[in-house]
Each structure stands twice: as structure tokens, then as C-alpha cells.
Input
Amino acid sequence: MQNITAQHLWDVEFLKDRRQAGLERQFDQDWERARTEALRDLANDMEHYCVCRSARCRRARRCAGTDADCRRLAERELQPEELRQEAEEVYLRLQQERRAAATNKHNRHRPA
Output
């Protein structure tokens, strides 16, 4: 019978790879969220919700759909570089919010 305690259950490189994959997945999700929010903000600024086919957007008087026409209209009106710049601004805000939340979380657990 093999000595099970002598075997490593998790290889260090495997754990590093899993952590890196998780960070990359989070990075991609954050960029997609930033792009979506930037498009929604621009659609609201341009008041595309007024002509959107989604009754939800028209009732809310803002872009409220996940795949609404008003967002697609805003995307078509922008150059790719303009959209990227808007998304970068939203991405920066999201990262600042994440950092502030993490800092507050750590500060709450420290004894005074």
C-alpha cells in the first residue's frame, strides 16, 4: 500500500495556475461589465430609450434591457476607440469601488 501522506494532494504549480485562471476570468468579466455599463450610460445620454423597441426601457426612461436596441444604437454611433475610452473610465471606477470595498472589509475586522 502506498504512503498517502507522502503524496502531495495539490501541486503548487496547479494551484498557481488555478489562481491565475480565476484572476484572468475576473479580469474578462470586469471588462465586459465596464463595456456594458459604458454603452448603457451612453444610450441614456443620447436618450435612445425613447425609440427603443423594449417597452421596459421606454417605461423606465433609461436603458434597462440586457440586450436592448437602445444600447445597440449607441454602440453603432461610436467609433471603437471612443467606446474603449468610455469603457476604460467605467472599468477604472469599478476597480476603485472594488478596492474601497476590500479596504473597508479589512478595516471592519481589525480590533480598535
Notes: Residues 12-45 form the longest helix (34 residues). The mean pLDDT is 82. Residues 92 and 98 are 10 Å apart (CA to CA).
